[in-house]
Amino acid sequence: MAGVAWIGEDARSLGPLKLYHRLFQHARAFQPDWVIGMSDTYYGWLARRLADSNGARFAIDAYDNYEAYMPWNLPMHRLWRSSIRAADLVTAAGPQLAQRLQSHRRGGRPVEIIPMAADPDFQPLERQACRRKLGLRTDARLIGYVGSWSRNRGTNMLIDAFRRARELQPDLNLLLSGRPPAEVLAEPGVVGTGYVADVHLPALINALDVACVITADTSFGRYSYPAKLCEAMACGVPVVATATEPVRWMLGMRTEYLVPLGDAKAFAARISDSLALPSADYGPRPTWTAQAERLDRLLTSAQAQARGSALE
Known about the structure:
Shape: elongated
Structural class: alpha/beta
Largest sheet: 6 strands, parallel
Strand order of the largest sheet: 7-6-5-8-9-10
CATH class of the largest domain: Alpha Beta
CATH architecture of the largest domain: 3-Layer(aba) Sandwich
Helix content: 40-55%
């Protein structure tokens, strides 16, 4: 990317302590105006430390409820919440998460919303060409789930829904990427791809007749804005999605794509209806460029506001 310099450090090979010192060395050499923490609770605390040690401002960008990852790690959660309160700017992927983070701000500057956006490589592609490229059947109906397989995400319901839908569509196949359980891969009609390289993911999404999005009513799911939903929408692929509040918000409350949580019968019926759709139009979608410009404006505004407060 033009104008952007990247430095990558391997946390596994360095270990926490060496990584900590290496990052502080980079920050001292670079002297940033802003430090932004994202991706996990650890990075909120680390961004604050890096910013404080270099006289920089710091922001936190959250796209999940990170406290759901390790609910037992109470000391880290306290540091996370303290960092949220102290941050010059906090952004969230959607209104539900923003509201949760705002509760930690205790009346501070409002948490801003920057919705998820798909990688620009995700765009509509010809379905059969994508299947040939990936070695998938061109003569079958193909629905798919691309994501982690976990009881906490409600994915077991998908197999029940698939069985029901396949009774009406015997040529229906379910494509699963990643590493689902062996008993799931043994299910008739299930096609496992294993892990798919990032470069091939746009073709994988476009190869589907229907993309399935599964979330659950959990401390994670109530604040989850699935990237795979963004990607399917960017590709114009019809989706069938469980109706958590974040997913409903992402889909603009379009009921034709939503089913009640845990309802395999309704999910199967929605799959059957969606198979008749050649594509889907979700309206204008957020882009990386637009979201980057919004973040830039928010950083500039927060810095100007802080300078103004300092002069008063």
